[in-house]
Amino acid sequence: MSLLINLNQEGYESLKSDLQIVESKIEELQLVLSELSPSYSHLKQFYEPNIKIFFDKSRNPNHYRAGISISLPERIHKINHSFKIDDAKDYKGINDIELVSLSKLKARDFLVKKYPQYFE
Description:
By secondary structure, the chain is α+β, with helices and mostly antiparallel strands. It is built from two helices and three strands, in the order αβββα.
């Protein structure tokens, strides 16, 4: 590939060739990306789950719960799971850093128990 382009017929031909090479490589990489993306998206929900934390005052003592949605290939709809994180009295609110950290740990534990085949 040429970095310096001659502004003449030779430069044009060289640039045209380089562009075709780059376009071909981009198409090849897009194909690889399209093959990898579905598997990555599926696994990401187990290793980087989207955790929704909510305050549950329906039980005594009040506590925080977390919700996770999982899509499985054999299911049409997502599966919603929720689990207790901890008592509310120990945290400053839904965005408390310690609560968020604990929710990630508990989510991982929950997913490992519920879907062990993804963690073997």
